[in-house]
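Run log // design_07
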C-alpha cells in the first residue's frame, strides 16, 4: 500500500491544502484496537485514496454546492464584515489590546482567567503544537478509530504510537474502553466532540466525569471545533476543570459557526503551565492578524448571528436527514454541520459522479463499508445535494 496517498498528500496534490481546506476526516480500522505503527500507518490512511481523489482542483470553482469542508455557507456576520473594514485602517499596527479584549470575553464566558487562553490562526495550530509536544520522545496517543486525523498524523510523524480504539455502536467515543487502556506509556488522550466525521456527541456529564478521572493521570485534549452547534444551554462546560487546574486542553475554532475558515482564528483553553509548554511549537499569537482579530471580537459578541447560523444549520440538516431516510439510507444522528451515512456504491464512482454534477462531498471506506460525509450547506444547496444524490445512486 506504499503508493497510497495520505490525506495530507492528497490535499497537497489537489491544491486544497494551500487553499486552507484541511477539514477532512479519517477512518481507521476499528476492531480490535488499532495500533498505528510506521508501517501500518499508510495502510490505515488508505481510505484517503478514494476520498474525492479524482476531483481535480479545477473542479472546485465549478461546484454548485461546496459540501466537503464543513464551512459556514452563510458567510461571516455582517458585524464581522464591518469590523474587518474598520480594521483595514489599522492594518499597519501590531495587535496588542485586541488580544486582551477577546481573551477577556472568552474568559468570562468560560469561567477561566485570560492567562488560560492562547489565540491561534485557527485551531489547527493548537492541534499541531500539542501533537509535537506530546509526541516528543515517543509514547502513545489514545483515541478512537473514526475521528479527525490532523493531530494524530503529526504525532505519529513525530514518533508517537497512535492507538485508535473501536467506537461504540452509536459511532461515539468509547470512554470506558479508553479508560481501560490507560497505561504509563499514554501521553495524551485525544477526543473530538462533536466528533468529525460521525457528528456524534458525548453527554456533557459523562465527558466531565471522564476528564475528572483521567486528567490527573494523562492530559486530555478535547477538540471542540464543532461545539458551537450545540444549543448553548446543553454545551459541556469544561472550562471549570481548567480553572480547577486539571490537565485538560480545549481547542476551539472560529472556522465553523463564525465562518472564519479563511480568516483563521482559534484558541486553546488550558492551564498556564500547559500553554507555556505548547507555545514554543506554535507560530505565536501574532500569527493572528489584527483584521481577523477585530472581526473575531465582533463575531464573538454577535449572538444573534450565531443563533441564526445554528438554526439554519439545524433546519438544513433535518431536511437532509429526512430526505436520505426517505430514500432508505441510515444517517448517523449529527450534532454538527455535517453528517455521515453509509452508501451502497463504491466511493470512487460515487465521488466522481457527485463532483461531475457539481456537488462536492467527501467519501471514506471504513471496514469495507463506503460512507459519504456531506457538509450542511444552505437549504438550496442541500436540495441540490439530494437531487444529485438521487440521480447518482439511481
Ligand atoms: C475536528 C476538527 N478539529 C480542528 C479542525 C481545524 O480547523 P481550523 O484550523 O480551521 O480551526 C477541523 C477542521 O475542519 C476539524 O474538523
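design_07 sequence
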Amino acid at each position: 500500500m506504499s503508493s497510497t496517498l495520505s490525506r495530507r498528500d492528497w490535499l497537497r496534490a489537489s491544491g486544497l491544502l494551500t487553499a486552507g481546506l484541511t477539514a477532512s476526516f479519517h477512518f481507521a480500522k476499528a476492531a480490535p484496537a488499532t495500533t498505528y505503527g510506521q508501517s501500518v500507518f499508510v495502510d490505515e490512511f488508505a481510505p484517503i485514496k478514494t476520498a474525492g481523489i479524482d476531483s481535480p482542483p479545477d473542479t472546485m470553482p465549478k461546484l454548485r454546492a461546496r459540501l466537503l469542508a464543513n464551512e459556514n455557507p452563510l458567510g461571516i456576520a455582517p458585524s464581522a464584515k464591518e469590523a474587518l473594514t474598520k480594521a483595514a485602517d489599522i492594518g499597519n499596527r501590531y495587535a496588542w489590546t485586541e488580544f486582551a479584549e477577546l481573551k477577556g470575553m472568552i474568559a468570562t464566558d468560560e469561567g477561566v482567567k485570560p492567562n488560560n487562553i492562547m489565540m491561534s490562526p485557527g485551531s489547527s495550530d493548537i492541534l499541531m503544537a500539542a501533537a509535537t509536544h506530546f509526541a516528543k520522545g515517543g509514547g502513545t496517543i489514545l483515541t478512537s478509530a473514526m475521528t479527525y486525523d490532523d493531530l494524530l498524523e503529526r504525532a505519529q510523524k513525530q514518533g508517537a504510537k497512535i492507538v485508535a480504539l473501536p467506537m461504540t455502536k452509536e459511532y461515539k467515543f468509547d470512554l470506558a474502553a479508553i479508560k481501560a487502556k490507560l497505561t504509563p506509556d499514554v501521553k495524551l488522550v485525544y477526543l473530538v466532540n462533536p466528533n468529525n466525521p460521525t457528528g456524534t456527541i458525548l453527554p456533557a456529564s459523562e465527558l466531565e466525569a471522564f476528564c475528572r478521572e483521567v486528567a490527573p493521570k494523562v492530559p486530555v485534549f478535547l477538540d471542540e471545533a464543532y461545539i458551537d452547534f450545540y444549543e448553548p444551554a446543553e454545551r459541556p462546560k469544561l472550562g471549570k476543570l481548567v480553572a480547577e487546574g486539571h490537565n485538560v486542553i480545549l481547542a476551539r475554532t472560529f472556522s465553523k459557526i463564525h465562518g472564519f475558515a479563511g480568516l483563521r482564528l482559534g484558541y486553546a483553553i488550558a492551564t498556564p503551565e500547559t500553554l507555556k509548554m505548547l507555545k514554543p511549537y506554535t507560530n505565536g499569537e501574532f500569527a493572528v492578524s489584527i483584521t481577523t482579530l477585530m472581526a473575531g471580537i465582533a463575531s464573538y459578541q454577535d449572538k444573534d448571528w450565531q443563533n441564526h447560523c445554528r438554526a439554519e444549520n439545524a433546519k438544513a440538516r433535518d431536511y437532509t436527514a429526512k430526505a436520505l431516510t426517505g430514500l432508505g439510507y441510515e444517517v448517523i444522528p449529527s450534532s454538527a454541520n455535517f453528517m455521515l451515512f453509509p452508501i451502497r456504491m463504491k466511493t470512487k464512482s460515487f465521488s466522481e459522479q457527485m463532483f461531475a454534477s457539481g456537488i462536492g462531498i467527501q467519501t471514506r471506506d471504513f471496514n469495507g463499508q463506503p460512507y459519504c460525509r456531506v457538509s450542511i450547506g444552505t437549504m438550496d444547496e442541500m436540495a441540490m445535494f439530494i437531487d444529485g444524490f438521487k440521480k447518482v445512486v439511481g
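The chain has two domains: 7-19+47-75+306-393, 78-303.
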